[in-house]
Structure formats: structure tokens, C-alpha cells
Amino acid sequence: MARLISYNGLIAFLFLIVVVLPSTAQQISGLVQVNMVRADDHTPWLDKGTGIVAYQDDSVNLQQGVLRITDKLSSAFSYDVTANIYQLGEQHIGITQAAIQYKPLSNSQVRFKGRAGFFYPRLSLENVDLGWLSPYTYTQSAVNSWFGEELRIAGLEGTLFSAGRNRRSPFSWEITAGAFKGNDTLGTLLSWRGFAMHDRQSLHNDKIVFADYPTVNDPNGIFHPSYVEPFHELDSRVGFYLGAHLSYYKRTQLRYYFYDNQAKPTVVNHQRLYAWRTKFHSVAFSHDVTPTTRFISQWLSGSSHMGQRFVYIDFDAWYMMVSHKRGAHRLSVRYDDFKVKEDDIIPEDMNNSSGQGLTIAWRYKLNANWQVGLEQHINRNQADIRTTLDEAAKQNQQQTLAVVQFRWR
Q1: How far is CA 45 from CA 76, 197, 282, 310, in A?
Q2: What is the pLDDT of residue 166?
Q3: What is the pLDDT of residues 319-328, one digit of tens each?
């Protein structure tokens, strides 16, 4: 059974919504999702198990609580802050994004915008809803589930962009670059747990636990704790990413990103958390086949390593999704494929993992505030490291969600 949110945390969240924020912000939006779950009895990594979906057994849960505050500071500057509340995980309430944005007024065909703070690069065409959620499914793709867990930018981003309408062209484009610190442990979860599929985003100062694998914990071996704090700065190096967006009208979108955290993999802190040198390519594509049917896909490929090649992995993941909207109904079907392959010097620490997943979701908008939905997710996955806990490497998992959502603005 999932652990309960602390009473004090819930009271603080409600106080923030009802009392403080209406007097200080011009635009406030948010949502609450409550689910009823039917799932396999396979303990998730969030409870120090080896399952790759968020829930087990049959239960009722607070799935999401999102609060977003935006306001203009001037004609060019604005701020955007998102807070989340979760029932699952070590930390239950906190900030997931907070940024100051700069976008001056201009009549130029090529313009500039920028932002600074704690935020996601715009890698995803799946997670485009309020609070970096997906409007299509409740269980997100393996690619974007991992981004939500371990990836956030604490830094600066600058973008040159040109809208097609200003050039009487069907094509719009953007070129973006970012520099950051504080993402040095990126790659920890992929290496030891592998990809997972869920919708929980790590909060600022969060701790993500995983199973007590003996090869990881061994004082005479790697000697790493069974958790990661994903937004640590360990080596004072500056990471970077580069991106390019191209869109044809608003019908077709293509996004490419290259990310490199530039971490020094031999650096370790007092908690025994290592810096992981992680870099990857990401390509996301979206096309409106008809005004009501959309195709979305993303491909991720990269590598990560720590220590003197104590752990070295190559990882690849991709998904394809079709989503059809008819009136107040939306039906989405997504197929995921993911794998992690090791090539390091400690063969006892087995980091190979792989899997495939199928997600089918129906969402129905009752009115401007209320939505209901059903989702069926099934996957088959393999993680060799499970055998160190005397578990089978291969697992088949399924999860059924019935979700009620209330949203404002």
C-alpha cells in the first residue's frame, strides 16, 4: 500500500492555494488527480522494490496535485513557478519548476528569448500540458518518465526564434542553447534500475530510492547508497545542451537536442553519490494526420558512466503514439521500447535491462473543470541485476487506472 502524505504537508499545500497565492499572483492554475488502481503485486522502486510501474495491488491514491503561478514583472520579464504534491516517494510536496523568463517585444523576423532558473529543456512533445504532464496518457513514456525523475536544468537558456507568419512562410524555427549546474548524478537510476514508466516528477531536493542491490551497496565494491538525489552539483563543472525546433504551420513539429552534463565521473561526495558523465541525443516528432488525429514519437540515445569505468552504459529508448480526439473524448495508444547495455569493469554489477510497453488511455472531458479517464498499461521487462536479490530477471507487469481530475484555469 502506498505511503500517505503527511497531514502537515497537505495543510501547507491547501494554505498556499487558498490564502497566500490569490493575493500575490495574477494567474493561478492547477489540477488534482485521484486514481483507483488495480495492479500486480510487484513492489515498485519507490518502495525499494524492482517493479517499473508506480503502483502495486489495489488502492486509491492521490496521483497528482499541481499548482502553477505565473505573472508579468514587466513587458519583457515574467516568472513561472510550478509546485507538486505526491502521495508516492520520499518527499511529498515541493517545487518542480521555477524560472524567470525574458521575451522582449520586437518586430524583427528573428527574435531572442531566454530564461533562468530550475526547468526542463523543451525536449518533449508528449509532456505539453500543465505542470509538464501529458494530455494523452496517465502513464508516461519511458523516455519522459526518466526525464521527470533525473533531469532538470538549474541554469540559463537562450533562444533565437523566427515565426513563419512574420516571413510569410509555413516554417517556423528555433535554435536554443543552455548552460547549467546541478545535474551531476544523472544516469544513476538508468544504470541500476533501468527505465520505468509513471508520471511522478522529482521535486527540488528530492531523494529517489531503489532496491538494495548487494553489488551496489558492497563496502568492498562500488559502495553506493540505494538512492540518488538527482539535482546535486558535485564537481563545479558547467553542463550544456543545444537544441533546434522546426515546425510546419502548427501541424508538424520536429525537435532535436544534444545534452552533455560534463560531469567528472571520479568525483564522489560525502554521501557516496558519484558524478555520472551523461550525454544523449533526443529527437521528438509530432504530426497532425487530420485535425483530430495526432502521431507523436521520440527517440533517445546516449551513454553514462561513473568512476574509473566502474559502471558504463549505453541506453536507447523510443515510443510511438497515436491520439484521436472526438468531441469530449480522447483515445491514445502508445508503444514503448527501451534498453540499457553495460560495458564496464565490474561484471558482478549487472546493468543490462530492457523492455517493451503498451499503454491505452481514454479521457473524457465532462466540462471545463472535470475529466474522467481509464488507462490500461502492460509491459514486459528484464533487469539482470534482479538476480542478485534472488528474483527472476524477467517480469511481466500490468496496471489499470481509473482517474478523476479536477482542473482550474
Answers
A1: 43, 11, 25, 22
A2: 87
A3: 999 999 999 9
Q: Per-residue confidence at 220, pLDDT binned at 50, 70, 90?
A: confident
Burial of 367 (0-12, 13-18, 19+ CB in 10 A): exposed
Of 324, 327, 242, residue with least CA distance to 279: 242
The model's pLDDT over 180-193, given as tens digits with 9 standing for 90+, comes to 999 999 999 999 99
- φ and ψ of 47, to 5 deg: -110, 30
Distances from the Cα of 291 to the Cαs of 222, 298, 327, 363, in angstroms? 53, 21, 12, 18
Calculate the alpha carbon distances from 326 to 27, 211, 295, 332, 387 in Å: 30, 43, 15, 12, 46
- Report long-range pairs for 160-167 (Cβ below 8 Å, ≥24 apart): 160/110, 160/111, 160/112, 161/110, 161/111, 161/112, 161/113, 161/245, 162/109, 162/110, 162/111, 164/247, 164/249, 166/109, 167/109
* Contact of 173 with 161, CB cutoff 8 Å: yes
Instruction: Please check whether residue 300 is in contact with residue 315, taking contact to mean a CB–CB distance below 8 angstroms.
Output: yes
Q: How long, in residues, is the chain?
A: 409
Report how far residue 196's alpha carbon sits from residue 42's, in angstroms, rounded to the nearest whole number.
Answer: 13
**What's the predicted TM-score (pTM) here?**
0.92
